[in-house]
Automatic annotation (TrEMBL):
Catalytic activity field: ATP + protein L-histidine = ADP + protein N-phospho-L-histidine
Protein name as annotated: histidine kinase
Gene Ontology MF annotations: ATP binding; phosphorelay sensor kinase activity; protein dimerization activity
Keywords (A to Z) from UniProt: ATP-binding, Kinase, Membrane, Nucleotide-binding, Phosphoprotein, Transferase, Transmembrane, Transmembrane helix, Two-component regulatory system
Example of a GO cellular component annotation carried by this entry: membrane
Organism in which the protein naturally occurs: Nonomuraea cypriaca
Main enzyme class: transferase
Entry EC number(s): 2.7.13.3
Pfam families linked: HisKA_3 (PF07730)
Transmembrane segments: 37-58, 64-82, 89-117, 123-141, 153-172
Entry-linked InterPro entries: HATPase_C_sf (IPR036890), Sensor_HK_TwoCompSys (IPR050482), Sig_transdc_His_kin_sub3_dim/P (IPR011712)
Keyword Transmembrane helix: yes
Length: 409
């Protein structure tokens, strides 16, 4: 049966720290990956190698003791395969046995290393300290011919501390990798959220304008069924034109959404459309006038950066849409001013409380979206009734000075 690691299943991502660091429940079921099998085989071979290298040291021991050494040494090496399921229990048992038996030392070293890697310091530290304590009876009961008791204790202490430090380093590295992975996932999720919000604002700004135009023309046909044929034809043409433009805008936004999601063929099925800039404001005002709005535009000359102009265009577009919804028929004044190196301001003003014809319902999200758009561009936006009795939307956006080729050098 194929092994499935927990971190490969999205529904178990919450368990990733336990899988990565081994801080799971003692005795839990172990499902090894290919890498886990390779590591476990290597640990088994290390324990077996250490055990075999210590066999010559017990050749002079009595036969019963040699038999006990060989039996427990073989069992300890076999128990290494249980190190993932019962790491603490294996470490405690092998540490106790190694206080007298020599052939258990290899399995004891592997067990201490496993606890250092797979358990926090509050568990691995006391177990390592317990292993150091058990060195005292070992060097006293099983003295080595070429080492003094103190020399044997120092050698055993060096081995235990080296193995423990090695395990701690590996555990710290795993914690660092997991932390970096979590940060990367959080950054990716935040980027996706910001992209979704940007697309939602774009969709609202684009479609709200087109749909409000459709509603105005349709309302004119509804309230004036006896209008001349030329006016009905003109209104029907405007409805058809705005419906077509709305579909195009919607198709463009969906294309951006597909591209942001990385869908295959997104660039082929939905071509990019040019984004509006400040130079497109007169066209927007003409469309509003054709829909029956009384709009006056004060637009200065000069080149404005594309991104800045697009933000101002969207702010004015949404403000005009709100004026059509809530003050239909009222005169609207659009004023854009500013200079490079300072700010570019946009003001949309219309009389407050004017109601003519059918009122278009709104989602009450347009002004919130305008405020977010201005803040993301590094500016600010204010809206509300003015002392003169008008409703005013004002936005101030930073206007950076364009660099020349000489400045770059």
């Amino acid at each position: 049966m194929t092994d499935v690691r927990v971190e490969d299943a999205p529904e178990y991502r919450w368990a990733l720290p336990s899988v990565l660091l081994g801080d799971g429940r003692e005795g839990r079921r172990v499902r090894r990956s290919t890498r886990d099998w390779i590591v476990d085989i290597a640990m088994f071979l290390v324990a077996s190698f250490i055990t075999l290298t210590t066999v010559p040291g017990i050749q002079d021991e009595p036969e019963p003791l040699m038999a006990i050494e060989q039996l427990f040494g073989a069992l300890a090496c076999a128990a290494v395969w249980l190190r993932r399921r019962w790491p603490v229990g294996l470490a405690l048992v092998t540490t106790v046995l190694s206080s007298y038996l020599e052939l258990v030392g290899g399995a004891c070293v592997v067990a201490v290393f496993t606890v250092a890697v797979h358990r926090p310091f509050k568990i691995s530290g006391p177990i390592t300290l317990f292993g150091i304590v058990t060195l005292a009876p070992y060097v006293l009961l099983r003295p080595q011919p070429d080492l003094t008791p103190m020399g044997g204790f120092i050698l055993g202490l060096a081995i235990v501390l080296t193995v423990f430090a090695w395990g701690i380093v590996i555990r710290a590295r795993r914690q660092l990798i997991w932390s970096l992975r979590q940060r990367a996932d959080s950054a990716a999720e935040e980027a996706k959220r910001l992209e979704r919000e940007r697309i939602a604002r774009e969709m609202h700004d684009v479609l709200a304008h087109r749909i409000s135009m459709l509603s105005l023309h349709a309302g004119a046909l509804e309230f004036r069924p006896d209008a001349p044929a030329e006016e009905i034809a003109r209104a029907a043409g405007a409805i058809r034109s705005n419906a077509h433009l709305a579909l195009q805008d919607l198709r463009g936004v969906i294309g951006v959404l597909r591209a942001s999601r990385g869908d295959e063929g997104a660039d082929d099925t939905v071509p990019d459309r040019p984004q509006p800039t400040l130079a497109d404001l007169p066209t927007l005002v003409r469309e509003c006038r054709q829909a029956g709005m009384d709009v006056r535009l004060d637009l200065p000359g000069g080149d404005v950066p594309e991104g800045l102009g697009r933000n101002v265009y969207r702010i004015v577009q949404e403000a005009l849409t709100n004026a059509r919804k809530h003050a239909s028929g009222a005169p609207v004044t659009v004023t854009v001013s500013g200079e490079p190196g300072k700010e570019l301001s946009a003001e949309v003003r219309n009389p407050l409380g004017t109601r003519h014809g059918l009122r278009i319902p709104g989602a009450k999200a347009g002004l919130i979206g305008l405020t977010e758009r201005a803040e993301l561009a590094g500016g600010r936006l204010e809206h509300g009734p003015a002392p003169e009795g008008d409703f005013v939307v004002r936005a101030w956006l930073p206007w950076p000075v364009a660099r020349t080729s000489g400045e770059d050098t």
